[in-house]
TrEMBL record, chain A:
This is Molybdopterin dehydrogenase. The keyword Repeat does not apply. Transmembrane segments: none annotated. Gene3D superfamilies: 3.30.465.10, CO dehydrogenase flavoprotein, C-terminal domain, Uridine Diphospho-n-acetylenolpyruvylglucosamine Reductase, domain 2. One of its GO terms (molecular function) is FAD binding.
Automatic annotation (TrEMBL), chain B:
Keywords: 2Fe-2S, Iron, Iron-sulfur, Metal-binding, Oxidoreductase. Pathway: Alkaloid degradation; nicotine degradation. InterPro entries: 2Fe-2S-bd, 2Fe-2S-bd_dom_sf, 2Fe-2S_ferredoxin-like_sf, 2Fe-2S_ferredoxin-type, 2Fe2S_fd_BS, Aldehyde_Oxdr_Iron-Sulfur, Beta-grasp_dom_sf. The lineage of its organism: Bacteria, Bacillati, Actinomycetota, Actinomycetes, Kitasatosporales. This is (2Fe-2S)-binding protein. Pfam families: Fer2, Fer2_2. Residues 10-86 form the 2Fe-2S ferredoxin-type domain. GO terms for molecular function: 2 iron, 2 sulfur cluster binding; metal ion binding; oxidoreductase activity, acting on the aldehyde or oxo group of donors. The keyword Metal-binding applies.
Length: 330, 196
């Protein structure tokens, strides 16, 4: 690992000033991804600005009935929070489905959003990777891509975003709030993560030098009946090969509102708007759920060795929606 | 005015098992290496050194964490508890005793991490934290019974290459039961579902 300077920030303006004070600095939250990437030589910052102690560690109700989650709230505290479990259960389930008890205690909400892909070529500095070294190539297109993207990828990068939490946040229209030296800003999560295109190294639209201060969950009564389901190659403590966050409001057997986001299928959490459109006003039955899943996955463009993910994701969407509809009918 | 560039080293005071140690660390030093190489506390084990095996689990302010991804310099100000700090004098912690009594190990390398993880996991459960296998996560539902499935899920960050999991689950259940007996005010910590 390269030598680096370490500074601790105690408030948001102080953190921004420290980051801005020289080149090549990174904010350090829980460190569960950044420290790991530094060990691997993928990240080589000259300075770390420790923001874990910033007073951004609260989950608070907003005036309009939503929640504001501070950036340094740990994943554990987010998942255990009574209002999250009551009003956005799929978010708590998504966080609990990620990593291990130890890592969830360390990892922060801000860091979770900014974690990097676990594509093996990205984390292996001896291999080319357009995300790590722009223009160097993407061996995954022809190589190991069993768990790579089926939606929204480009020939430049087929890696998937690893977060579970961000999938549920995407389904619930979460907004990222940040601070810069020039003032605060907000970005809906669906605009926060940018399409791959030919710039896979650029993952978010967060302005340079900005500090994520929190995530705002707008009020969403539909989210009270929501679920996150994750499929992986072992029962626990593994990244998803497919996941779904869904919420369903059914009345008289007809879908009034649906929220749907997919994980492990694209470079970013995938809001399934085509499926949502197909569901709205449809009968809440297996046929309609399958049609909605097909509507979303019509755009799927799998690689030679990950076509299984199209069927897996389709079945997952149908299963989760069916479960929610059965719950609504009880 | 821009702050002066800081060097690659800092003097830090680490609070480990109630004792304060002041040492100069290279910022690259993980808490795991500081504990083992600088403070001679070798109970905390290095397995994968990349946050995947749990052998280096310690408690930070009572919460379990992997010491291999925790920079020592960033651990200043936190109460660090290692496996060496669990016993009460000569009296082993109930979790340590349970692992001994029920053979919750084979080679023993992952054991300090398993025990530290179990001690904090039992507190997480008692505090009402749900897990990924908890059926009803609504706060009104209260803590789920600490079944074998719940224990396996909550302990999944601790790998055992010997595969002593069956005995580990029993030992953790025993430790949780001992804790529940000694803290009667705690909400349900039954280790098994009641017979039908």
């Amino acid at each position: 690992m390269k030598e680096f300077a370490y500074q601790r920030a105690f408030d948001v303006p102080g953190a921004l000033a420290l980051l801005d004070a020289g080149s090549d600095a990174r904010f350090l939250g829980g460190g569960t991804n950044l420290v790991d990437l530094m060990k691997a030589g993928v990240e080589r910052p000259a300075r770390l600005v420790d923001v874990r102690g910033l007073p951004l560690n609260r989950v608070e109700p907003t005036a309009d009935g939503g929640l504001r989650i501070g950036a340094t709230v740990t994943n554990s505290d987010l998942a255990a929070h009574p209002e999250v479990r009551r009003r956005y259960p799929a978010l708590a389930q998504a966080v609990l489905a990620g990593a291990s008890g130890q890592l969830r205690n360390m990892a922060t909400v801000g860091g979770n959003l900014l974690q990097r892909t676990r594509c093996g070529y990205f984390t292996d500095v001896t291999r080319p990777c357009n995300k790590r070294v722009p223009g160097s190539g993407c061996p995954a297109v022809e190589g190991e891509h069993r768990n790579h993207a089926i939606l929204g990828a480009s020939g430049h990068c087929v890696a998937v975003h690893p977060s579970d939490m961000a999938v549920a946040l995407t389904a619930f229209d979460a907004v990222v709030s940040y601070e810069t030296a020039d003032g605060p800003g907000e970005l809906p999560l669906t605009e926060f993560y940018v399409p791959v295109g030919d710039t896979p190294h650029r993952e978010t639209s967060l302005p340079r030098g900005a500090l994520i201060t929190g995530v705002i969950l707008p009020p969403a009564p539909v989210a009270a009946r929501s679920r996150y389901r994750k499929v992986r190659e072992r029962a626990s403590y593994a990244f998803a090969i497919g996941s779904v966050a869904a919420a369903l409001d059914v009345e008289g057997g007809v879908v009034r509102e649906a929220r749907l986001a997919l994980g492990a299928v694209a470079s970013r959490p995938w809001r399934a708007r085509a499926a949502e459109r197909a569901l709205t006003g449809a009968r809440a039955d297996g046929e309609a759920f399958a049609a909605a899943a097909d509507a979303e996955l019509a755009a799927a463009n799998p690689l030679p060795r990950n076509a299984y993910k199209v069927a897996l994701t389709r079945n997952l969407m149908v299963a989760v929606l069916t479960g929610l509809a059965e719950e609504a009918a009880r | 005015m821009a702050p002066a560039p800081s060097p690659a080293y800092s003097s830090v005071t680490l609070d480990v098992n109630g004792d304060k140690h002041t040492l100069t660390v290279d910022h690259r030093t993980t808490l795991l290496d500081a504990l083992r190489e600088r403070l001679d506390l070798t109970g905390t084990k290095k397995g994968c050194d990349q946050g995947q095996c749990g052998a280096c689990t310690v408690l930070l302010d009572g919460h379990r964490a992997v010491a291999c991804l925790q920079l020592a310099v960033a651990a200043e100000g936190r109460a660090i508890t290692t496996v060496e700090g669990l016993a009460d004098g000569e009296r082993l912690h109930p979790a340590q005793q349970a692992f001994l009594d029920l053979d919750g190990y084979q080679c023993g390398y992952c054991t300090p991490g398993q025990i530290c993880s179990a001690v904090a996991m039992i507190e997480e459960h008692a505090a009402g934290w749900p897990s990924a296998v908890t059926d009803d996560i609504r706060p009104e539902a209260g803590p789920p019974p600490l079944t074998a499935d719940e224990i396996r899920e909550r302990m999944s960050g601790n790998l055992c290459r010997c595969g002593a999991y069956v005995s580990i689950v029993r030992a953790v259940a025993r430790a949780a039961a001992v804790r529940a007996e000694s803290t009667p005010t705690t909400v349900s910590t039954r280790t098994e579902r009641a017979p039908a």
